[in-house]
Amino acid sequence: MQTDRHDTPQEVMKNSTIHIRKAILLPLAFALLFLLAFSISGAFWLQRHQFDENLQQQLNSVQQLFNTTLRNEAEHLNTFIDFVMDDPKIYQAFIAGDRQLLYENTSSIFRNIENRHHITHFYFHNLDMTCFLRVHKPTSHGDLIDRFTLKKAKEGGDVSYGIELGPFGTLTLRVVHPWKVNNRLIGYIELGREVEYIIPTMKEILGYDFFFLVNIRHLNRQMWLEGLKISGRQEGSWEEVPRHVIIGRTMEAIPREINNYMNVPHLEKENLIFKITEGDKKYRGGFSPLRVMSGEDIGEIIALRDFTADVDKQRVSTILVMVCLAVLGILFLLFYFHISRMEKRLIKTHDFLTEEIENRKNAEKELQQHKASLEATVSQRTVELTDMNRLLQIEISERKYAEENLQEAHDKLEERVAERSEALEKTYNQLLHAEKLSAIGKLAASIAHEFNNPIYGIRNVLDGLRKRQNLDERTMDMVNLAVKECDRIAKLTQDLQSFNRPTSGLMILLDVHEAIEDMLLLVKKDFSQKKIKVKKHFADALPAIQGIPDQIKQVMLNMLNNAGAAMPEGGVITISTEKQQEGVAIRIADTGIGIKPEDMDRIFEPFFSTKPAVKGTGLGLSVSYGIIKRHGGSIEVESSRGKGTTFTILLPLSQQGIKESPAG
């Protein structure tokens, strides 16, 4: 008869650990590998799907963006038309039928808006839709204008705009405005801008390159070539794109692979996303129909986006994933062999622990024997410790009382030290600020003195150049720009001189309300353009102050200009005055963007400004601060981010505390 064999604990341990690698590690590795591969594939698929989805959304918005851009440009052109219609010289010449006088009164306007705003067409039409004057081509007139925009303006009696294809192959945004004088319709004014000047705006908004294509069935080749010569545009090619002509672009050359998609049916192109390669560049793009105002489909709008960087990133990501997988494989092999060594160590550890358990059992027996003797010893020591604890409690109470008295004395000493430190720091900051203002003032005066003579010399030379007749338009524009920059530098040096050496004058009795009203007249036009309203809450019978009028007015003007600059989208400025016990308080509050908390301590520093560098020198508040201080007053500021800022100017009533203003 066979008997059952019982394994020892050591054998059981060996049999249970020998298969750890095969039973756990390998299945776990395969599971992780599968999850990793699935996750990476899913991530790449989602990334590519997201690319295509975003691209499709952006391509779908091209037509909407084009229409929005046209509407904005039309509103811009309509502004110029409103200006022309309100000029008495212009409508009187038109009503009188004096074409030459009308041309003389409008030619300079056209040259200005042509150079600055790329407006290429300027018409005056009679009520019978015949052209009275083409300002851009005065020798051509009297022909019947049969365009959709003019018809719509005549039928609807309101402004009409839209793009239309001209006979010379120019795609032009046209705005036609009925012209009424004393509520009587006298004719129509039309302005036009070619689409090629509008396309760059679309590129800036969407980040795509665009090609505007017109099907050649809508064009006459000879007239198109003649139009290129007349407009002075770059040479185009009738065969550059199959069955189409490019009339506007933001890229120098159209990728050749696009020609492969030009034969795709028009309806299928609207949802088509193509991927092409041109040299080392990779593009994705699509098509959108090009429709004129009448609704006729005359061609295509091709939108291209450079995806080279995204493709490179995806390639780098793939390489990194492969490297990570290789590293994981190496780590798995190392871990596999490491587990093997750990299995052997576990068996040895088990044997050691078995022996250790046996030794501990023997030690426990010895501990039980010592337990009885220890209990007796502990009982005796407990009585001794109770007596010692009573004495310690008494000592702790005495120490606690002494510590409380010491802490009270320490707190009082800290309060006195803090008060003295705060006073010393305030005095030090005031001295440091005064030294900084003095040093910066001397530096500002030196810079202004050294800049003035060269700048005025350059300004005189530029004025001489402007009077010459043989300068071309581009050179004249550059000279005018240089003159503006000289004027800006001269204004900056004037601010620097004002900071170091304010305007001299005598102390006289000054009406604060009158000074405020004078400065409001100076900013009235600017505030009106920015849609800024001014509310005044003036105190009755406000006493006069003693001060230098020019300097006080300069402070008021600086405060009003700063308040206006803080509200570029419009708002409300509230000016209030009140008589206080020892002086007059003037508050100027705006509803602008406010001042950042971290900037509040620096707003009166010279050359510090929260405005862009081209819009502020950072001297306005510093100069104002110095003027008010010399008048014995003070300036306080309160600001809430996003709600507005309030400046409070305090000026004394009497001569007391007023420092004499420095001469000249």
Structure overview:
With 664 residues, the protein is of the alpha+beta class. Among the domains are: 247 residues, PAS domain (Beta-Lactamase, 2-Layer Sandwich), CATH 3.30.450.20; 150 residues, Histidine kinase-like ATPase, C-terminal domain (Heat Shock Protein 90), CATH 3.30.565.10. A hairpin with a 2-residue loop joins strand 8 and strand 9. The strands form four sheets. A five-stranded antiparallel sheet has the order 2-1-5-4-3, with helices on both faces. A five-stranded antiparallel sheet has the order 7-6-10-9-8, covered by helices on one side. Strands 12-14-15-17-16 form a five-stranded mixed sheet, with helices on one face.
Sequence-ordered SSE layout with sheet pairings:
Blueprint: H1 9-17, H2 20-85, H3 88-95, H4 99-117, E1 121-125, E2 131-134, H5 148-156, E3 160-165, E4 171-181, E5 184-194, H6 199-206, E6 209-215, H7 221-231, E7 244-249, H8 266-269, E8 273-278, E9 281-291, E10 297-306, H9 308-466, H10 473-500, E11 508-510, H11 512-529, E12 532-537, E13 545-547, H12 549-565, E14 571-579, E15 583-590, H13 620-630, E16 634-640, E17 644-652
Helix content range: 55-70%
Backbone structural class = alpha+beta
Sheet with the most strands: spatial strand order: 2-1-5-4-3
Q: Would you tell me which CATH topology of the domain at 60-306 applies?
A: Beta-Lactamase
Shape, please?
Answer: flat
Give the DSSP E fraction (strand runs of 2 or more residues).
Answer: 15-25%
